[in-house]
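Sample 1 of the test manifest.
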Amino acid sequence: MSAKRVSYFEASARARVAALVDPGSFTEFCPPAQRRTSPHLAQLDAPVAFDDGVVVGAATVDGKPVLIAAQEGQFNGGAVGEVHGAKIRGLLERAARERPAAVLLLVDSGGVRLHEANAGLIAISEIMRALMAAQAAGVPVFALVGGACGAFGGMGIVTRLCDEVIMSEEGRLGLSGPEVIETVKGVGEFDSRDRSLVWRVTGGKLRRALGEATRLVDDDASAFRAAAVAALTHHRNAPADLASLKAAQAALTERRATHPDTRDGLEVWRTLGLAQPEAVPMLASDEFNRQLDALATEV
Amino acid sequence: MERFEITLDARPAGAARRSALCGVVASGNLEVLVELGQDPAACTVEVSTSADGFRDIWEAVLADFVERHPAGGLRISINDAGATPAVVSLRLAQAFEDSTGGAA
């Protein structure tokens, strides 16, 4: 392995796949040469991509067979169109049949592609159904979130359905993006140009502290790989049966009571009892995880 | 969007070529797909670009590419989102190198 650090945030979808899987083990389904491009973008006379912005295939990670999908955030914000969505859905349906050790979803998406919104929305619901079918067949699905587009809109929901959510601080997770919230509710509600605030509210550290992300890693492709390898050995299961869903709902209700009217990650750090709330955004993930674990054992 | 195909005389690329993809379709960027073509003495380039009216610039950049690289026998397909000529040259060179498996 090369010692050179690869920023997961900066890497393309293809570079992320190459850094995550065992060398030479990746086989792509529907590769670029098949030119499965978006008919909707063509109709609108907009540029298309040969892979429609998502790479799907089979590989091994630490010797274990996985199916993997990686969204390209630079192409239309990683947004899900008809073909893009069908590739992810097909991969998850294949997982339910072939039962690999896991499915890895490298999410980097603002949500549904507005150029083909109806087809994209249907695709998201199909992905959700296929994801749960894979889980019901005993295949865990892990989301990896560390790209510039984060995981928003429909892909934010898809991410939260996953058994493990591996994030970096740079990765973001939410439903409506900051710009959308500001547009609808005004700058007083959420200043989307306050980058620090945006990351304190949507970034990986807050998501980890609130339990929405299951693992926090540094912005390093090898750290994402290490977390995926660890998850392949031992993983959390997303709540599926009625009892665990009720427990998850109760935890959310309790969270709302613990953090009433919270508007900033800083307030959450303070409420949780982290020693220096204002220093949290700059902590390396190891130190942040150590402080969180220490709080958990104190309780 | 403007679409056109250009065929250029080129020195044969030789054997041991494989298809390669370089770049991403993003503002100011492009993707270059290299595949094996039929005629070993010609390089065909299919361009699909969001910037209309620059065909003469494309022809100059592609002529420069086949001058620098033995691209005969290759079929190149491009999806462009307004890349500058320098970026186009860079991606073509990257894709050409990747199509050798990084050996050349």
